[in-house]
């Protein structure tokens, strides 16, 4: 819109219906340059008014005199711009937000100028206020549908891509689950089907690069959520490793912490990374770098839990020692109790050849009946798979180590074998010369089956109890006693001297008066609820508000539940790794593999990307330059 007429024209008297002024009469002259009303010069500003300040401007005849544009007109008129090519002034908001580049003139307060002016005044807002709002909403709806498809596939450990990544070739097959689900969503959602028609062909966002970017952003949001849950709390680090079919060492890092939101202890997979070497310094650096990269404070590590391998448990050069040296303080190392129990059973049961033969035969039978040809014909009872991990407890083992328990077991066995005749054996006599001696070797003398089974029974139990006593002797340490003293069912509950070792790890103290009050309060609760066992977790969940009045006791209870015991969560993540890294997906890089495992394992957090985290996901995805405008 050429505004030179507005600056030089004399407005007519206002009427009740219009505030616009008429154009100058022919006697006053015409513009020096003219142009098509529907087109604007190409030297005007795109992102703001082009306010060109020249020493002299071209003159043109107006009436009987010559006039020109003045750069002083730019003062207090941030909407005004000047075209050198057209030698004309324009209103930037009118040009950008009006339907046509008109030459109609009028007062600045007229509605034709106020509407675009108000839009221009909002230039400090997001670009969504300057672009077409409806198209922005359509773009977001389309992007939301793609996010839902990716979230569904990664949560269920399903592959995403195939050979085809375009809508035009879906009928050819090999499109993969991602493209197939997108196409299915378009067919089932009429609104999405209409929106797809407005999406530019170069911004359909179905390529593998976009899929990788979305999964990477999702994984980072899940990590951020875990770090936010931890906050400034103490946490335990659990690390274990396994090799995938490509030979790459995968290191699973799990954190255990007390969640102040749910008031319960939580274990999360922080990251699954890869290690180029399996030595202690490399693994130590990986642990510290991943914790730091995620935003966690390494000085808040309460304990560390690994398996018993020398590279992890070494007292001088193991990971547990190097980690303490790098952090600069004591961080207790716990040899995974599940692994220790596994070793107890394996070593104890391997002491008797008869027991080894028994499990070997059972395993052979299991493998035999698993053969397809046999399994197809055999319809009888089936054996369960025998694993080396046969979990039990020392208390249970001690309870069954008695003559009465053996007799019950013997009667149960013999009752089921009465129909099977036992062949008679030739009886051998014991050498009389050995009657006064303890014989450690076999003499070839037959003893009854009951006597032999009794010997094996008590021998196996004695070996188990001996191994457990030797391997779990650390349970009698000061830290174990401190954790036991925080158990409401323990006799030493809230004993100040017993609790001190675990409090010293965090350089905090326990207040004796708070322990006395808390003990009385919890004792009263136990009396009122005599039928329910009181645990530390239940105490923290149900009585957290009351315990806030006793901060040192509350802190001690949180430390007790945060202290680590096993790496079972790491083992669980390896199961997800096996499901994700299938034979058909061996070509994926290790970064993407780790992200997919992370999202599948922390499925409850990944599901939040459907609704409450979706806007944040879009904003983080949109930080890079994108063809499809989302904000």
Automatic annotation (TrEMBL):
Organism phylogeny: Eukaryota, Metazoa, Chordata, Craniata, Vertebrata
Region (Disordered): 1-47
Pfam families in UniProt: DUF4371
SUPFAM superfamilies, alphabetized: Ribonuclease H-like (SSF53098)
Low complexity bias locations: 8-22
Domain DUF4371: 124-316
Coiled coil: none
Full protein name: DUF4371 domain-containing protein
UniProt-listed PANTHER family: DUF4371 DOMAIN-CONTAINING PROTEIN, PTHR45749
